[in-house]
Amino acid sequence: MTMTEDRLRVAAIVLAAGSSRRMGTNKLLLALEGEPLVRRAVRRCLAAEFDRVVVVLGHEASRVRAALDGLPCEFVENADHARGVGTSIRAGVGLVADAMDAVVMVLGDMPYVTTDMLRTVLSWYRATRPPVVVSEYGDVQAPPTLYDRALFARLLAIPDGSGGKPVAHQLAALRVTVAFPEAARRDVDATADYERARAKPTTTP
């Protein structure tokens, strides 16, 4: 590792504030292979060796926090989470903006995003320092997505209901795109998704 890589500090921001309306219960607390989905996501971020792992809480914050008991992550509570995912992105970035060189947005309901995938995103950033590293699953782009600190101001200004994708699209000519298996994009958004994940779990760390 070069001295330049040593100086690049990257935080994972796990978005875990949503109310899971389609599921009817808090999907992040559903168990897959013996652990809640949110704990699975945070544990993999920790294993990928981010400098900080921040979990944005909102809906049922105390229950989500309890599901992460014992893990060395940080928390920020988003009282405005019902207004849209943009409020959670702003909360997470706002907590770390002064100290980090980049952030990676991670969703707590994507059980097939592995530690190795997160490490791949990190390695591309540390090797070439692009403004954005985008994960691509077939022809669909989805998290994890990395944003250099040069884009923090844009992330802190995104509308309540917007995700970070428009910011990444603005840098299309400069970003790095990393290809992952199309099936790894599957999330748990409804009961059928959860049953599918239970039927085809992944034991990859």
List keywords for this structure.
205 residues, alpha/beta, Spore Coat Polysaccharide Biosynthesis Protein SpsA, Chain A, 33% helix, 23% strand
Can you walk me through this structure?
The protein has 205 residues and is of the alpha/beta class. It has a single domain, classed as Spore Coat Polysaccharide Biosynthesis Protein SpsA, Chain A (Alpha-Beta Complex). Helices cover 33% and strands 23% of the residues. A 7-stranded mixed sheet has the order 5-4-1-6-8-7-9, sandwiched between helices. The longest helix is centred in the middle third of the chain and has 14 residues, at 115-128.
Overall average pLDDT: 91
Assembly type of the chains comes to: single chain
H-E string: HEEEHEHEHEHEEHHEH
- How much helix is in the residues? 25-40%
- Report the uncertain regions: 1-5
Q: How would you sum up the global shape?
A: globular
CATH topology: Spore Coat Polysaccharide Biosynthesis Protein SpsA, Chain A
CATH H level: which superfamily?
Spore Coat Polysaccharide Biosynthesis Protein SpsA, Chain A
| Count of individual helical segments | 8
Strand order of the largest sheet: 5-4-1-6-8-7-9
Number of individual domains: 1
Task: Please report the first level of CATH classification, the CATH class.
Answer: Alpha Beta
Number of strands: 9
Largest sheet composition: 7 strands, mixed
Distance between the termini: 24 Å
CATH second-level architecture: Alpha-Beta Complex
Report the sheet-strand fraction: 15-25%
Output the radius of gyration: 16 Å
Structural class: alpha/beta
